[in-house]
Amino acid sequence: MKIAKELRTRIVRTGRNLEKLLQPELQNFIEKNNYALPNPYRHLCNLYSYFRDQVQETQNKLKLVESTGPKDLGVRVIAKQKTLLFSPGEDFGEKKLRDSKLAESSEELKKEQKLIEDILASIVDNHNKILELERIASYNACAMVSFFFSYIEFLMDTLYIFYPVASKTLHDFQEQSWRERFKTVFPVDKDKDLGKIYRKLLEIREGWRNVIEHGFRSKEESLLIPLPGLGLVPISYTSASKAIHFALTPSPKNGIQEALDVFSAFDAWAANNQQTACIILFAQYGNPIPLMEQRLQEIRKWMSSPEILKKALEAEEDELQSWQDQYQ
Predict the structure, then answer these.
(1) Region 131-142 average pLDDT
(2) Residue 241 forms beta bridges with which residues?
(3) For 146, 226, 240, 283, which has the most beta carbons within 10 A of its beta carbon?
C-alpha cells in the first residue's frame, strides 16, 4: 500500500510538471482557436427532462386529488349542523318535541357528531395533500427552470460558434447580456412566434430563475418598510403579490404551467427552425464542440439539412467504430 501511494504521488507530480512545461505550447492552440469544447448536451437535457417529468407527474397527481376530493363536504357539515339544531319548516313546539326525542337517543347524537368530525378531518386531509403536492411541484419546477435556461445558454454558445458575428469572439459574445445573446443567435425580430416566446422566457428568467439562482436577492419592489403600528410591510403590495419572495412556495402564481407551456413552445419552434434543429441534432450525437475553422466549415456544409447532417454524423460514427474494432 505504501509503495502504491508513493507511486501515485510521483505520477501526479510528474503530470503537473509536464503541464507546466507544455502550457505555453497549449496556449498557442487556444489563441489560434485550435481546440474543442466538451459537449454537455446529454447532461443538460437529461436533467431538464427529469425534473420536467417530475413536475408533470406531480401536477397530474394534484389534478386527481382536486377532482376526487370531497367538494361538497363543507355543505354537508352545515346541513348536518342544521339538522341537529333546527330543521326547516318545523315550529318551536315541534322542535321541542324533537329535542326531547334526541335527548333520549344520545347514541344517535354521538354518531352525527362523529360524522361531522370525519367530514372536517377529510377536508383538512385533502387540503394538506394539495399543499404538499403543490410544494413538491414547485421545488421540482425550480430545478426544471434552472436547467432549461442552462440548456438555452449551451444552445446560444453553440449557435454562435457555428454562426459567429465577425466582429466578436466567443468570449466577447459570452460577455454580453442574456438578451443581447439571445437576439444575436435567434431571429426574435423577424419571427413573431419566437418574439412571443422570447418575451415569456424573459419574464420567467427575471422573475423566477434569476431570483432562485441568486439566493433570493431582493430587488427594490420586494423590500420591507417599517411602519409604526403595522410593523414591516412590502414597499409595493402590487409587486409583492407577484414576487416569489412572499409566496408560500418558490414559484410564481400559475407560473409552473406557464413555464411548461413556453418551454414546449420553444422546443417546437427549435425543431422547425433548420439552423437550430441542426445544432441540436449535432449536439445529440455527443461530439465535442469544435472551434477549429476547418472542422466548422466541414460540419456547416452538412447542416444544409437535418437529413444530410444525420447521414454524415452516422457515417463518422461508423468509421470511428470500425477503427476502434481494428485496434481492440
Answers:
(1) 94
(2) none
(3) 283
Burial call 183-210: b when 16+ CB within 10 Å, e when fewer: ebbbebeeeeebeebbebbeebbeebbe
Give the C-alpha separation, 134 to 141, whole Å.
10
Domain ranges of the chain: 38-289
For residue 219, give the nearest of 244, 195, 198, 199 by alpha carbon. 244
Taking residues 64-87, report their average pLDDT: 59
Per-residue 3-state assignment (H helix, E strand, C coil) for 244-293? HHHCCCCCCCCHHHHHHHHHHHHHHHHHHCHHHHHHHHHHHCCCCEECCH
Q: What is the pLDDT of residue 305?
A: 93
Residues contacting residue 215 through CB under 8 Å, at least 6 positions apart:
none
Residues of the chain above pLDDT 90, percent: 50
d(CA 142, CA 148): 10
Cell numbers representing residue 323 in the block: 477503427
Pairing of strands 224-227, 289-290: unpaired
